[in-house]
Design a protein that fits this description.
The complex is a heterodimer of chains A (about 475) and B (about 500). With about 475 residues, chain A is mainly alpha-helical. Chain A has helices at about 5-25, 35-50, 65-90, 100-120, 125-140, 150-180, 185-190, 195-210, 220-225, 230-255, 260-285, 290-310, 310-345, 355, 360-375, 380-395, 395-425, 435-455, 460-465, and strands at about 55-60, 65. In chain A, strand 1 and strand 2 (about 65) form a beta hairpin. Chain A is globular. Chain A starts with 6 loop residues before the first helix and ends in a 5-residue tail after the last helix. With about 500 residues, chain B is mainly alpha-helical. Helices cover about 75% and strands about 5% of the residues of chain B. In chain B, strands 1-2 form a two-stranded antiparallel sheet. Chain B is globular. The chains are: A mainly alpha (about 475), B mainly alpha (about 500).
Chain lengths: ~475, ~500
């Protein structure tokens, strides 16, 4: 019965094993038969995750399940499910057919890593989870093995993650040196703002900042996002980033709560830098993947406004925003993926006149972008509003002002894409096509999420039950 | 069910209806039917409101409904109306009704056009009935964003540039509003209880002066951007000139009033001390705006630019009057919003119809139109006379009230500002009469104009509705004025309290 505490991870491991075994017996030309069972299995796990189960700790407190971690895992699982749906079209391509199950296994492995990271009760478990979440991603980034850019993305990702992990570990070792333990609930009491601990925190922060791609640690992002296959990019920018943001927030609110006054300034400054630089670079991008890469950097800056709030409102909003962000960004990436798979076009000017040929895709894209920009009544508006409220609660009105001005910049470049699709005319627009059923289902889920999550307030209230603030 | 909810439900139902429409004609008919219902519901609300008041119901807000939305943050969906918002609802429904008929000939992507237009009007209605700052802000943004598509897709001239400029500037304004709203929210309960976005609750709270001084500029400038506050008015001429007819009507007629209404209802009402402290800055700016807009209009040759600059001038006058902080001037401000709303909608409708026939908007290229299209020409003259404040039309009532109210201030500063603002009437007369003279009278120079036909039935309907509006207010201003005065009560009271 104790194992039920770890049910999310165990179920995922089970799927991985099943897929591995089935793949052995599948003949080479029928590998794509595995797609549907994989999605169904994963969907079943997603639904099982919502069934309430026991909470508690395992392995002497290294692994902890609370209602909060269960909820965060469920949020991530929903996101991965949408990514699964959106990747089918791409996996069915001839060059990918023989590696379908590898794709699923790698993706699920990273998810298992993230779930361990979210559930970790000490830094060792946290680190193992983090590595498990990162290393398979490098393999995924290099998945298009005949494309040089993809290989480059894989190498860049593995180098930067190795570097950031090294920095992070260095910070953790210093914490261990000053406190003498790695268990979170014991570390809390040992942290008193000694200079070495502050240095340790800076290293820890830098390590996490690489994963979340916070300026000035964001330089790998655009290249990796551009080079990776689109579905991997969307996974990187949404799930991987969302998990890192959530776990980082929770660590700040628990383990580092004693030095909250100190890290508030760090977050304050990096939030401003991240939003502004992300936005300014996004304005100039022509490739949609790079464009969304920089937009996702900017979004991370907005999320930091919630982190800086240090209150229950702040934490609820961060998790809520991650949920909203999953639907918004996956909506946008879903459209890009569909179009790129059919036509290979990924530039903004390729989308000229898209509305007149593919109205539904254009509308989905517009809704997703408007949600990212924070236009009501879409969910992004509520997410942004609450993030700003969290910062304003601390009296940081200047930060809020900078952030709202940044949303205007972001609105500008999101409108550039809307402009291409709706306003511009083109001699050779992308011709009408019917996208495959899986992608359509994925997009429908995204749009439904965008419309419902904001207007239907119980979603927010549900998250709010489990969160807590420093004060 | 609360009758005010219909004002939001009808646009939504109309949009759903449009989505299922089969062809262009269905789309138009569904939109027209929907907006006719909207007009009827608005009329019922106005009459019902008057009846309640006559029956002695003195509650500050009528038809109030309060639903909890986000419980933890104490965000409510709180609707209700007072005299001022009822008047604005009436204005909006008249303009959108006329707007639908004025855009009868939109053939490019009609579904999308009417959907966006009605979505926009739904946002405006929601804004006017909201009493919770969060919902109000939400509707405000819903009203702004369809504008981008409306101007960008169906506009003329440098439409992409204008659409982008307009959207970014207005959203910039809403960014400032957001900061101000959060400031109000976190100051809404100094005693440390639950915070609130409820306007009426916040009005009861004494917010510390230094917070007021910090947040007042955010709110006033933020709403002022939409209300064409000088020097943030620059989106307006470009935006109006590029927009399609119905959008110009709705935008100048109603959307710009959101700015004035927001300044009145949120900035001045909730932060009265800061309003008193900082009024002088904005009085100077608005006085400049009034005269600048009028002079700008004189120099323009394009009909739409003329009217856009004239709107800047008239809307600046609204803000100017709000800053006078007395009942007469504020009454005039609301009257001016209604009067200008209908009048400018009439102008833009007529300009659109004239352009559809002559294919030019340049005044100096047209002449003698009175002979070929008497209906439209006479309507234009009526609009023009109302605009320059001829007694008997709404413009006179509104401007007269504003200047009388403004002149009540005994000090030199207010009087000088009033005189400067009042001198804009002369400039208005210049550009109106010049246009009327050059465009409508004289000989027909262009032989093609001989073929022009006069207004069609839908154009006549659209124009007649609006003319009815301005003359009704002009001839019988008292019922409107009484309705507004009743609504102004709490605001004036709060302002008076803050002086003492």
């Amino acid at each position: 019965m104790l194992m039920l505490i770890m049910r999310h991870e165990l179920l995922l491991v089970l799927i991985t094993v099943i897929l591995l075994v089935v793949e052995i017996f599948l003949p080479a030309d029928r590998k794509q038969k595995i797609i549907l069972p994989a999605i169904i299995l994963f969907g079943a796990v997603m639904i099982l995750g919502f069934i309430p189960g026991p909470t508690g700790s395992l392995f002497g407190g290294m692994y902890i399940t609370t209602p909060l971690t269960v909820m965060m895992k469920n949020i991530l699982t929903i996101g991965v499910f949408i990514v699964f749906l959106q990747s089918v079209d791409w996996l069915k391509k001839a060059e990918n057919r023989e590696k379908i199950s590898e794709y699923y296994i790698l993706l699920i492995s990273t998810l298992i890593g993230m779930e361990y990271m979210l559930s970790s009760g000490d830094f060792l478990m946290f680190y193992i989870g983090l590595e498990l979440a990162t290393i398979p991603l490098a393999a995924l980034a290099a998945f298009d093995r005949f494309k040089e850019k993809s290989a480059e993305a894989g190498v860049k990702l593995i180098f930067t993650s190795a570097l950031s992990s090294g920095i992070l570990l260095y910070g953790l070792s210093m914490i261990y040196g000053t406190v003498g333990t790695l268990y979170f609930d014991e570390v809390v009491n040992g942290i008193n703002g000694a200079p070495l601990q502050i240095l340790a925190f800076i290293f820890f922060f830098a390590g996490m900042a690489f994963k979340i791609s916070i300026v000035p640690f964001h330089l790998w992002t655009a290249d990796v996002y551009e080079g990776s296959p689109i579905n991997v990019t969307s996974y990187l920018s949404v799930i991987s980033k969302g998990a890192a943001v959530m776990v980082f927030t929770i660590l700040l609110y628990t383990v580092f709560s004693k030095i909250a006054i100190m890290w508030r300034d760090v977050i304050y400054i990096t939030a401003i830098l991240t939003m502004t630089i992300g936005n300014l670079f996004a304005m100039r991008q022509q490739n949609l993947k790079r464009f969304l890469a920089f937009s996702s950097i900017a979004q991370a800056g907005f999320i930091f406004l919630g982190v800086v709030g240090q209150s229950q409102l702040g934490m609820t909003t961060v998790i809520y925003f991650v949920l909203v962000y999953i639907f918004s960004n996956l909506g946008a990436f879903g459209v890009i993926a569909v179009i790129s798979n059919r036509t290979g076009k990924e530039r903004i000017d390729d989308y000229d006149g898209l509305y007149r040929t593919n109205p539904k895709l254009s509308l989905t894209m517009m809704l997703a972008l408007f949600s990212l920009a924070g236009i009501p009544p879409l969910a992004g508006f509520f997410g942004k509003f609450f993030l700003f409220a969290a910062a304003a609660q601390q009296g940081l009105y200047i930060l809020v002002l900078i952030a709202v001005l940044n949303t205007i910049i972001s609105l500008y470049y999101y409108l550039l894409v809307v402009k291409a699709m709706f306003l511009n005319r083109s001699d050779q627009p992308i011709a009408y096509f019917k996208s495959d059923g899986y992608s359509r289902l994925g997009l429908v889920i995204c749009v439904a999420g965008l419309v419902i999550i904001g207007i239907y307030s119980p979603v927010y209230e549900f998250i709010n039950q489990f969160t807590f603030g420093i004060y | 069910m609360n009758i005010l909810l219909l004002l939001i439900i009808i646009p939504i139902l109309t949009i759903i209806g449009i989505l299922f429409a089969r062809d262009n004609k269905h789309v138009r008919v569904i939109s027209a039917v929907g907006m006719t219902f909207q007009l009827i519901v608005s009329a019922i609300i106005i009459l019902w409101y008057l009846a309640e008041r006559n029956a002695g119901n003195t509650a500050e807000i009528l038809f109030a409904s309060n639903y909890v939305w986000y419980e933890t943050l104490n965000i409510h969906f709180y609707i209700g109306v007072d005299g001022v918002s009822v008047a604005m609802i009436g204005l909006t429904s008249i303009v959108i009704f006329a707007g639908i008929f004025a855009s009868w000939e939109v053939n490019d992507l009609p579904k999308e056009f009417f959907t966006s237009l009605i979505l926009l009007s739904g946002g405006v209605f929601g804004f006017f009935i909201s009493l919770d700052l969060f919902t109000m802000f939400l509707f405000y943004e819903i009203a702004v964003i369809p504008m981008y598509l409306l101007i960008g897709i169906w506009g003329s001239g440098p439409r992409q540039y204008s659409a982008m400029k307009l959207t970014l500037m207005l959203m910039g304004g809403s960014a400032l509003i957001l900061v101000g709203l959060l400031g109000l929210y976190f100051n809404s309960n100094p005693a440390g209880g639950p915070l609130t976005f409820d306007i009426l609750e916040i009005a009861k709270v004494q917010i510390p002066l230094n917070s007021q001084l910090f947040f007042f500029p955010f709110l006033f400038v933020g709403f002022g951007v939409l209300g064409a506050l000088f020097p943030f008015h620059t989106w307006s001429p470009d935006g109006h000139a590029s927009a399609p007819t119905a959008v110009s009507m709705l935008h100048a007629g109603v959307l710009m009033k959101l700015g004035g209404y927001g300044c009145y209802r949120v900035a001045v009402f909730l932060l009265p001390d800061a309003a008193h402290e900082m009024a002088w800055i904005f009085i100077i700016l608005t006085a400049i705006g009034v005269i600048y807009g009028a002079l700008g209009a004189i120099w323009q040759k394009d009909l739409k630019y003329i009217n856009a600059y004239s709107s800047v001038s008239h809307c600046a006058l609204v803000l100017f009057a709000i800053l006078m902080f007395n009942e007469t001037a504020m009454n005039g401000a609301i009257m001016q919003m209604i009067s200008h709303g209908i009048m400018t909608a009439l102008f833009f409708a007529l300009i659109g119809m004239i352009y559809g026939r002559t294919h030019t908007r340049y005044v100096n290229e047209m002449s003698g139109l009175m002979k070929v299209m008497p209906f439209l020409a006479v309507a234009y003259v009526i609009g023009g006379l109302a605009s320059l404040g001829l007694p008997g039309f709404s413009g006179f009532v509104a401007e007269m009230t504003i200047f009388v109210g403004a002149f009540m201030h005994p000090d030199t500063f207010h009087r000088v500002a009033t005189i400067i603002a009042a001198s804009s009437i002369v400039a208005t007369a210049v550009y109106i009469l010049r246009v009327v003279g050059m465009m409508l009278y004289g000989k027909i120079t262009n032989p093609e104009y001989e073929q022009i036909t006069d207004a069609k039935w839908y154009e006549r309907l659209s124009t007649a509705t609006l003319i009815f509006g301005i003359t009704a207010i002009g001839i019988a201003p008292l019922w409107l004025s009484n309705m507004i005065t009743a609504g102004l009560g709490p605001v004036i009271q709060k302002l008076l309290l803050s002086v003492n």
